[in-house]
Amino acid sequence: MAQLLCSNSTIPPRFPSASRFHSKHRHFHHQNLRFFTSRDASISSYGKRRDHYSPVKASSINGFSVEKIFERYEEEQSERDVELGERIRKWIDFLRSVLPGGSWWSFSDEVEIKMMAKPVTLWRALGRMWGLVSKDRWVIFAAFSTLIVAALSEISIPHYLTASIFSAQSSEIAVFRQNVRLLVLLCVVAGICSGIRGCCFGIANMILVKRMRETLYSALLLQDISFFDGETVGDLTSRLGSDCQQVSRVIGNDLNFILRNLLQGTGALIYLLILSWPLGLCTLAICSTLAAVMLIYGVYQKKAAKLIQEFTASANEVAQETFSLMRTVRVYGTEKRELKRYQHWLEKLADISLRQSAAFGCWNLSFNTLYHSTQIIAVLIGGMSILAGHITAEKLTKFILYSEWLIYSTWWVGDNVSSLMQSVGASEKVFQLMDLMPSDQFKSKGKKLQRLSGHIEFVNVSFYYPSRVMVCFLSTLQILCMMLPF
Length: 486
What we know:
The strands form 2 sheets. This protein has a two-stranded antiparallel sheet. The protein has a two-stranded antiparallel sheet with strand order 3-4. By secondary structure, it is mainly alpha-helical. Strand 3 and strand 4 form a beta hairpin. The protein has 14 helices and 4 strands.
């Protein structure tokens, strides 16, 4: 063994690379350990640990240079630091993208949709729907009339319910009987009107879907032949089927629940302001915040529904092409390729559905937070008002019931508005196809000739299909049609 000369101790030196060297070369003999060093090497004694060492010059361990070991260790350490920083930066970018307003929520780069007309807004879509059902407006009027009566009856029930409980507690028998009679009457009226309302809205829904499909089908039949060169059969059948079916819940569900909860929420808000205007204003502020979130969520759902219908139509197009040409697919053995094409659109559908679910989770998070905030504020401010003698326990009970009614009405309005926006977004292509003008072949009246004489000659005629303007099918054609004698 080589001996290292030192002034104070004969203990072998400890180098920072020794632990790393032992991890790679665990089995070695101490007899093979040799040191060739200068006098500048630092030495550690028993019981002490040195954190910093001066570099060792001209040394080797089993033929490996200590300087190279140090350099390699420093390079690997710097690479680890760079990798760690890169991972942290990627996590930060990912968190920024998934937060509200981030790039993960954007639909701008998903698909390029061909716009044949101006975009369909909510009010324009509702106007077109009213034009389809206006011939049977008596059904709509009956539905809305019974809706108003049912909404007013239901919003009056919590008032008389609370009054009945506190009148029974105070042993006021006459007041208790009167409140109970009114409760029974309101329940009967609300039940009857709700049944008639649901029936009328269901009939209006059926009329809307039937006439929408008729109008769309007749508009497609009157298009020029070149229109069908650019549109696929799978896309058109998807518009007639799933897109029109998406509109089937607009009148029966969306408009029905929006108007009912809007009336009930307005009545609850007026009652709250009459009971206690400070508590009413606090509840109004919370409901306004919830309404703002509701509008953002509704616009997002409209975009998502539009893309879902586009991707569904593309997937149906792939499936229809494959099934109609199944013999050709089997001959060339392209089953896996067709499956990949179909999976491509399914992955896009799953991606949009994932974002929809995440947006719905954010919407529910905001609703539950604001809903429980309303309860806490009502209890705190109402309890302080009771202690101060400004309101009674009966009024506070009514306030809590109507505040919950108001917040739930706001939630129902928001949920059905988002559903309405989703239906309008899904049916946007349907309204664009319905607005297409018929072909000139059907618009022109034409003229019937009584007698035809002479001949017809085509000189240097070229022909292009409108959907394939770059391909010339007939070039410099010359035809002469002579009239045959009778």
